[in-house]
Amino acid sequence: MSASRAALRIMRAIRVSEFGAPEVMKFKTDVPIPEPTGKEILIKISSAGVNPADTYVRTGSYPVKPSLPYTPGKDAAGIVEKVGPKAKILKAGDRVYTYACGSGSYAEYGLAPEDKVRILPDNLTFQEGASIGVPYYTAFRALFQRGKARANETVLIHGASGAVGIACLQFGSAYGLKMLGTAGTTKGLELIKEHGAEACFNHSEQDYTSQIMEATGGSGPDLIVEMLGNVNLQKDLEMVAKYGRIVVVGNRGSIEINPRLTMVKEAAVVGVMLGTANEFETKELMAATQAGLVKGFLKPIVGQEFTLDQAVEAHHEVIEHKQGTYGKIVLNI
Length: 333
Prior knowledge:
The chain is of the alpha/beta class. The protein has helices at 3-8, 52-59, 126-129, 133-146, 163-174, 186-194, 208-215, 229-239, 260-265, 279-295, 311-320, and strands spanning 10-16, 25-32, 40-50, 76-83, 95-98, 109-113, 117-119, 154-158, 178-183, 199-202, 223-226, 245-248, 268-271, 302-307, 328-332. The strands form three sheets. Strands 3, 4, 5, 6, 7, 14 and 15 form a seven-stranded mixed beta sheet that branches. The chain has a six-stranded parallel beta sheet with strand order 10-9-8-11-12-13, sandwiched between helices. Strand 14, helix 11 (311-320) and strand 15 form a beta-alpha-beta unit.
């Protein structure tokens, strides 16, 4: 940020004034810098994470719609610029990350409640910091809070090369789970093997579900974490083990399934929405993630980097995956 704009208390930010395609996002240079109140933290953002949910909000199809105009984004990493009068833990100059940038993270500055901000370990970059929040918290919730994963179980990450998938593999490997993963490119398959998948399958191949069944001795995975339910849920029901669980993390439409498969196997299909976690669950998933980052068994993968004024391109890529799904997409501010 230039000295003149800082003096005027204005910043660069993406603004959305109508719901629609990625092109409704507009790059602005005269957005007021927000002021922290209460227990809020003002972060000078270095990097912002781009999540699929950001695109759903932008289209107006998300369950909770922001008031227009708004700045997109929740994941951010940067340096604390200023703290509200009731903030007690963080201070100006701290390196931090958050998944709850209420004012929007596609901006030079953003506000977040102090209890949703954590110290960024020194060994992580700001780009990696912006890749932590939503993906890793969703992964922990999917595996353990909703999926009830237990050590020694076999878990399939159906679409493992994206940010949430990699987080699932890293968590699962550390917690004693036998992790299987799918990806659609050679590069993606190499990535998931590197980050904990004991067996890897190309979901672009016609018979990959048969390969998964063979790898599990015919019994199927105990738990399936599903990234695209509208495409794969019937396959999941056919593969999942008796008494198994399917956790739906991502979905973009409708699908016809045979519910009898849930009866025969007494299998459960449950959904995940990070925002529905209660206070205890939120503290648990944040603590587990922070511990993993500090101890080194969690390490975010940054797949692609864009500049703030390339937010439109970033939104196209996070949905279209022109280069294949690979880690997290971030905006460098």
